[in-house]
Amino acid sequence: MNKVLLGNFFKDKKSIILMYLINAAILIIFFNMIHPGNLEILYPISISLFLLAILIVMEWSKYYKFNHHLHQTNHDRLDLQPVTNEQAEVSKLVHTLNKKYVREINELKSTHEENVQFLYQWMHNLKTPISVIELIIQKYSAQQTFPVEVLKNIKAENDSMFASIEQVLNMIRFENIAMDFEPRAVPLVASVKTVINEKKSQFIYNHVYPLVNAGQEYSIITDKKWNQFLLDQLISNAIKYTGKEASNKKLVMTIFQEKEYTCLSIKDEGVGIPAYDLPRVFDPFFTGENGRKFRNSTGIGLYICKKIADRLGHRLEITSEVGKGTEVTIKYLAKL
């Protein structure tokens, strides 16, 4: 940094140095014309060069001090320590602009936090009618006075609405994941089976059969709650895009060891993703070709999964073939 600063200093002072050298050259030429061969002119020139060197050192000291603090400063503490009037004016302007931008940033943060809090509360309130609908479904299911197929359809839509609300709430919570992150050893097979049990009705409704391949229990390093949400999202996606048109489709979850990673492969037998859409599946709100076929596609499921996996230190990979299905692989660091 000092080399760059020194270079900038001489660029700023080159006109003064150049004018001095031109002036010295003119004096030498003029003196030599009057007194040819007389070297006495070198003495005042030497003194003048010495004084120029002192001036440059003094200017460099002021220049370095101000610019060094300018490069080292941050938004919390602006201490430029100006020496010249010009530097004082620059320092004053920087302080004024800094106060203005800090105020604007704080106002934006405050507005954003208020909006997020409002959205969070609103989403929580939406859970109440969903819970009421669930109770009504249970009531009519017990009485057997309502067509079973209709109740199944209502429950499926109600569960989908609940899942969407949970997705939004987790997006909001994700902003503070660092405060809510507790890495520990977590049993992966048990976590997968927990999600499968929670989604039993969704599997049945969509005619998808879950299959877990694991020779043993595997311990991984992760945050239990956020990893559970990650699995929930990926398995829900796999069920949704496997579809209910063809029965007896399988969703195969395979757990295996690969070098320092414990891997979970979630492979469906769904519609698959076109090759030209694959590079963008983790982009926010990207639905691609399948988004035109499935009305519930939002384009945020895989985006959230990728963000969570990155934050947890896991690798997320996806391969797919149209008409054959999609395979998503999570690579966890094995327990140390």
From TrEMBL:
<keyword id="KW-1133">Transmembrane helix</keyword>
<keyword id="KW-1003">Cell membrane</keyword>
<dbReference type="InterPro" id="IPR036890">
    <property type="entry name" value="HATPase_C_sf"/>
</dbReference>
<feature type="transmembrane region" description="Helical">
    <location>
        <begin position="16"/>
        <end position="35"/>
    </location>
</feature>
<feature type="domain" description="Histidine kinase">
    <location>
        <begin position="121"/>
        <end position="336"/>
    </location>
</feature>
<dbReference type="GO" id="GO:0016036">
    <property type="term" value="P:cellular response to phosphate starvation"/>
</dbReference>
<dbReference type="GO" id="GO:0005886">
    <property type="term" value="C:plasma membrane"/>
</dbReference>
<keyword id="KW-0547">Nucleotide-binding</keyword>
<dbReference type="InterPro" id="IPR004358">
    <property type="entry name" value="Sig_transdc_His_kin-like_C"/>
</dbReference>
<keyword id="KW-0472">Membrane</keyword>
<dbReference type="GO" id="GO:0005524">
    <property type="term" value="F:ATP binding"/>
</dbReference>
<keyword id="KW-0067">ATP-binding</keyword>
<protein>
    <recommendedName>
        <fullName>histidine kinase</fullName>
        <ecNumber>2.7.13.3</ecNumber>
    </recommendedName>
</protein>
<feature type="transmembrane region" description="Helical">
    <location>
        <begin position="41"/>
        <end position="60"/>
    </location>
</feature>
<keyword id="KW-0902">Two-component regulatory system</keyword>
<dbReference type="InterPro" id="IPR036097">
    <property type="entry name" value="HisK_dim/P_sf"/>
</dbReference>
<dbReference type="InterPro" id="IPR003594">
    <property type="entry name" value="HATPase_dom"/>
</dbReference>
<keyword id="KW-0812">Transmembrane</keyword>
<dbReference type="InterPro" id="IPR050351">
    <property type="entry name" value="BphY/WalK/GraS-like"/>
</dbReference>
<dbReference type="Pfam" id="PF02518">
    <property type="entry name" value="HATPase_c"/>
</dbReference>
<dbReference type="GO" id="GO:0000155">
    <property type="term" value="F:phosphorelay sensor kinase activity"/>
</dbReference>
<dbReference type="InterPro" id="IPR005467">
    <property type="entry name" value="His_kinase_dom"/>
</dbReference>
<keyword id="KW-0418">Kinase</keyword>
<dbReference type="GO" id="GO:0004721">
    <property type="term" value="F:phosphoprotein phosphatase activity"/>
</dbReference>
<keyword id="KW-0808">Transferase</keyword>
